[in-house]
Amino acid sequence: MTKPLIYLPKPLPPAVTDPLEQKFELFRAWQAGASEQHSPAIKERVQGIVTLGGRVDQALMSRFPRLEIVANYGVGYDIVDAAGAAERSIMVTNTPDVLNDEVADTAIGLLLMTIRNLGEAERYLRAGGWESAPFRLSPVSMRGRKVGLVGLGRIGTGIAERLVPFGVEIAYHSRSPRPEHPFQHFPDLVAMARHVNILIVIVPGGEQTRHLINAEVLDALGTTGIVINVARGSVIDEQALITALKSGIILGAGLDVFENEPYVPADLLEMDHVVLLPHVGSASVPTRNAMSQLVADNVITWFDTGKALTPVSETAHIVRRTGPVHKD
Ligand code: A2R
Fold first, then answer.
1. For the packed helices 14-21 and 285-305, what is the interaxial angle rounded to 10 degrees?
2. How many angstroms separate the CA atoms of 187 and 38, rounded?
3. Distance in Å, CA 78 to ligand 1 centroid
4. Are the folds of 5-98+286-315 and 100-276 the same?
């Protein structure tokens, strides 16, 4: 029996493609010419898409009449039109939970680097500055700080748990309160920004959270304020952030994500009071292997059992209609 054809818009790690290749035929779109990509023989056979950083919109999905599943590599799936997929009864999966600890660790590392100017201190040593004079004192520290988490989901909870031993006050903003947690809930983000002096952003990207952190929020955070973003670049109005950093409206920022990755605004690159990371939140070998495994397992389980392991909320109700189509 012919194996289902899985469309890959962009390259994926072998830890995803190796297990998939045992059960499916993989179509590597970046290696194919336009005529092959749009040939009826391909379009009519594609039953799945597996994507790492390649946008999956209505235009792409509508090319494949037999498409059943879109498996996204990563917990954030703002590059996939999940609502549009649900309308077409197409399953969308992501990779939650397996990266919670890694991203939470990164958030704490980035926070400490930012609040104590550790990146700048390391650059100072390497440039030989220490031989002339000690590095400057950091103007603030973790002592006596109040942290506001923008998002208290799977990863946000991991960050909050790591913050407890620091003895800082913890609050959070989300649309619904999480009464099982002892932290103060702020339904109003500006009110929370006024109350705290550190914001850690860990909400999904996409239209609903676009520029959630804007000039008003930064203004409310104030002159000792620090913003940490390990979510998506789109959640922060980057121009408003640059203005706030330049004019001293806030003290500093630690950013793992940017609005136009991998391009980082020159204004940010020139600043010493920001820490900039190349989107490494989950980027360790063990965590990326766990994510790869989950991507592959979602696709395999879908075709074997008609259900996905980790469907996104928009498509959680969808089950496979046609039953198993291939046997080993
Ligand atoms: O709003 P709620 O009650 O659904 O809480 C979720 C919150 N959240 C929002 N908060 C304010 N305004 C919004 N429009 C909004 N949308 C969602 O973000 C919840 O507290 C949190 C998301 O938690 P999880 O769905 O468990 O996501 P997880 O695994 O923590 O990952 C968050 C994001 C990913 O989407 C990637 O973009 C990034 O972290 O790695």
1. 30
2. 48
3. 12
4. yes
Class of domain 5-98+286-315: alpha beta
Architecture of the domain defined by 100-276: 3-Layer(aba) Sandwich (3.40)
Tell me the CA distances in angstroms from 169 to 147, 148, 294, one per residue in order.
6, 8, 35
Pairing of strands 46-51, 226-229: unpaired
Ligand 1 centre to CA of 68 (Å) is 26
Contacts of 31 (CB under 8 A, 6+ apart): none
How far apart are alpha carbons 195 and 208 in whole angstroms?
24
322: pLDDT confidence band, cut at 50, 70 and 90? low
Minimal-distance CA residue to ligand 1 atom 40:
231
Domain ranges of the chain: 5-98+286-315, 100-276
Render pLDDT for 221-256 as a digit per residue (tens, 0 to 9): 999 999 999 999 999 999 999 999 999 999 999 999
How do residues 92-101 score in pLDDT, each as one tens digit? 999 999 999 9
